[in-house]
Each structure stands twice: as C-alpha cells, then as structure tokens.
Amino acid sequence: MKKVLVLGAGQLARMMDLAGSPLNLDVKAFDVRTNQVVHPVAPIHVYGDLENGIKEADVITAEFEHVQHDTLAICEASGKLLPTSTAIKTGGDRRLEKALLEECGVANAKHKIIESKADFDQAIATLDLPIIFKSALEGYDGKGQWRLKDAAQADDIWADIEDFIAQSKSSVPQGVVAEQMVPFDREVSLVGVRGRDGQTAVYPLTENHHAGGILSVSVAVESRQELQAQAAEVFDKITNKLNYVGVLAIEFFQVGDQLLVNEIAPRVHNSGHWTQQGADTCQFENHLRAVCGLPLGSTAMVRPTAMVNILGEDSVPNEALALPSLAIHWYDKEKRAGRKMGHLNINGKDELELAQRLNQLANILDADAFPDLREFAANFLNKVSS
Ligand code: ATP
Ligand code: MG
C-alpha cells in the first residue's frame, strides 16, 4: 500500500482519499492551520506532526499552491514531493506564473508587474482600460483584485493596493500584477495529467461560469477539435517546462478561436470535479496515479456532464437527489456565507438530455442560493435545442 501525504486538508485532499481508497492508496492530509497530519475524510483522527508525516509517506503532494515556502522546502528535501516546489510556487505567485507563460511562449493577457507607484502609472499609460489589478500572492476566488474602468479611480485604487501590500504577512514580498481586461467570449479550462515518464493526458475542455467572482457552474461537452488541440498544446508546453508530475489545470479566456491563458493551478481543480461522474477516470484518481508512478487512467468523457458548486448552503432539497444521474459531494464543512460547501454533478447521454436535466435541477434548487443558475440552464437548453 503506497502512502501519500497531501499538503492541505480541504475538500481536494478529501476527494483524493475517496478516489484513492479503491486503489489501496493510503492518503493522509497535512492541515496547515493546525500543523497536524489528519485523516482527510475524518480529520478527528490525528497522526502526528509534519516531520512524522514526511517520514511515513512514500509520496508528498499538494492540494493548494499557497503552502508556506519553508514547508515546501522540508518536503522537497525528503525527495518525495511531486510536483516540484518550483511548480507549486509558480502557481501561487502571479509574477512567476506570468514569467512562465512568457518563457513557454503561450498567449496571455497583456500585463505589467507593479512594485511601485511609477510601475502603476506606467501600467495605466501602456495598457488599455479597463485594467484588472491582481495580488501576486494569495489570490483565490476573485479576492485581492481591483478593477480600474476609469482613470479617475486610479488614486483610490492605488491607495487600496498600497494598503494591501503593507498589510501582507507573507514571508515573500507581496506585489500586484496589472492585466488588461480581455473581452472574452467565454471562459474555459483544461485539466490534464502528466506522469513521471512525461506522458500526458487531458480531459475535454470545460466551460466555466462565475457568480460574484466564484466558479458556479462548469460544463463539459465535446469541444471543437482545433480548440481542444490548442489547449492541449499549451498544457504540454507548460508541463514540460516545469517537468511536471500530477494534475494541472489551465484557465483560459476564449476570444474568437483563440485561447489566452488566464492562470494555472498546479493541482486538481474545481472545474475538473465533473470527471467524478463524467470521465473514465476522475482527476483525483489520475493525480494519485501520476504521483505514485502508476499508469495514467483514460481521460475520455463518458457522458456530457455539468458541475454546480454549492456555495454557503448545507442542504439541498431531496427532490434534487431523486433526479437521474445526479451525484452530490459534500465537503463536511461548517456553513459560512459564500463558502464552497459541496458540489452537484449531473449528466445525460447527450447534450440535450444534460441540458434538460440541468434545467430540472435549477428549478428545484433555491434561486437565491444558486444565482444565475436558472438563466444559465435555460440558455444552455436553448442553445442545444436550436
Ligand atoms: P479563482 O481562484 O476562482 O480561479 P482568482 O482569484 O485566482 O480566481 P482569476 O481567475 O485570475 O482570479 O480571476 C477571477 C475572474 O475574474 C476570472 O475568472 C474572470 O472572470 C475575471 N478576470 C480575471 N482576469 C481577467 C482579465 N484579464 N480579463 C477579463 N476578465 C478577467
Ligand atoms: Mg481563476
């Protein structure tokens, strides 16, 4: 039985464990808030500290990119960490991420790294409005972002950014990246996996919708082949450059037929949760297979699938569970406004059946708790039916 230690003890480590059990993999999670190694599904079980966790593990991996750098260094020194600390840190720092994208020669939004007021002024002078400013570190779910639509807002935004940088408790200096806003047609992401031997496999692109800066729905249907190939090429360039092992996600803006990289996540990703019901092998199992040196599982889509995030709610009507193909995944978290509490996966034998079922689901779920879902589902059905 291979033993895997995951840095981070949230829902992603939990779902890795649930996917790893049938393979006889022993998954444990390092909770960075308590500095204890715990059972990912039943964290009441504590197994000791990090040092002990590292000693016990065959492989160490991560469920999030904002791991303290000294923790990464200790894990890497053991020779067991996959992907590498460089890959994890790159995903956790937009400055390194932009540098990587440039090195790989992959298309992304026009941007500038801001370290001073002079950089800030220059960004406004050289980028077209609107501009989005994003914190270099610790950004997630749209947090640490400012949008400048009108030059008159510049002073206020700079004051905010200065404050934000001054308040950072990070051991790495905080900074900001300015990006030109991309007038995208839609947002898509690619989740893929690279094995220890360099072999890669990618899932079909998913289309992602956000509500209030947080992912609300991901839909996986077959994409046009050129688009899928374009995304797969970017995946290969990035993962080869990082000598990456494991699952990695790439978020894109689609403008016409072109994909621009928004950001990468060196881990399993929320937009890949649909694979639990919609693909031959789910992303969690494939991540474990990769880091454990097992053959990668097929990433083929079995059925078109939609994933709906449950944000800030700890129950859904039982009627929803009665829908055919519906699967619910709770994370066993305490209820908090806007928090990712769980998700729903639903699928159909074809896009039409999926769209019909998603509409049924949207009409059962509370419209306030799932803003825009009814409208999204209705539009999806319209598009598929026409
Ligand atoms: P998450 O953790 O949910 O991925 P995040 O905090 O890391 O979010 P981004 O993905 O960079 O932040 O941005 C959040 C959302 O803001 C994007 O999904 C997109 O809708 C919008 N956005 C970000 N950058 C741009 C841009 N350059 N042009 C247009 N929209 C953007
Ligand atoms: Mg994002």
Quickly count the domains: 3
Approximately how much beta-strand content do the residues carry? 25-35%
The CATH H-level superfamily of the largest domain is ATP-grasp fold, B domain
Rg over CA atoms, rounded to whole Å, is 21 Å
Low-confidence runs of at least 5 consecutive residues: none
Q: Supply the CATH class of the largest domain.
A: Alpha Beta
Number of strands: 18
N- and C-termini, Cα separation: 51 Å
Q: Any ligands, ions or cofactors bound here, and which?
A: adenosine-5'-triphosphate, magnesium ion
Any overview of this molecule?
This protein is α+β, with helices and mostly antiparallel strands. It has three domains: 3-81, Rossmann fold, CATH 3.40.50.20; 110-180, ATP-grasp fold, A domain (Dna Ligase, domain 1), CATH 3.30.1490; 186-385, ATP-grasp fold, B domain (D-amino Acid Aminotransferase, Chain A, domain 1), CATH 3.30.470.20. The protein contains 13 helices and 18 strands. The protein has helices at 11-20, 50-56, 69-77, 85-91, 94-104, 117-126, 154-166, 225-241, 275-278, 283-292, 318-321, 351-364, 373-385; strands at residues 3-7, 26-31, 36-38, 46-48, 59-62, 111-114, 131-135, 145-148, 176-180, 186-194, 200-202, 206-211, 214-220, 246-255, 258-265, 305-311, 327-330, 340-347. The strands form three sheets. Strands 10, 11, 12, 13, 14, 15, 16, 17 and 18 form a nine-stranded antiparallel β-sheet that branches. Strands 4-3-2-1-5 form a five-stranded mixed β-sheet. Strand 1 (3-7), helix 1 (11-20) and strand 2 (26-31) form a beta-alpha-beta unit. The radius of gyration is 21 Å and the shape is globular. Magnesium ion (MG) binds at residues 251, 262-263.
